[in-house]
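Bug #77: duplicate submission created two jobs. Keeping one. Sequence:
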Amino acid sequence: MVYQSTIQFSPPSQYRLHIALDPNGVAFMAVLDPYNQPIHNLHHMKIPASELAKLCESQEGSVTAKSDNASITIAFSADVHPLDFQTTTVDEGEQKTTTSSVRKEDLAELLGVLCPPG
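Kept job's structure:
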């Protein structure tokens, strides 16, 4: 479910994935804690919104949004439920890698809200 341009990571995580678009079609992503604060360096990660949209439309592949000190990869994977994308965040400053998942339909819904067709 989309809430304030964010979607929930799969339980038991209480973190949310936030996506904002700039006028040039660049998606800025951040991982937020339950108080809507970015987690360490996991913010200002950017990727063309069109790449996210292509991932949602296809049935394979992955995309990676990056900043200077962090990245998030969203991918199809056999390791998660078929209705989910696997997410892998890498925080180089904290030297921490985390794997979780988000629902495919939630990501597609969020992209539809941020960049409606037409």
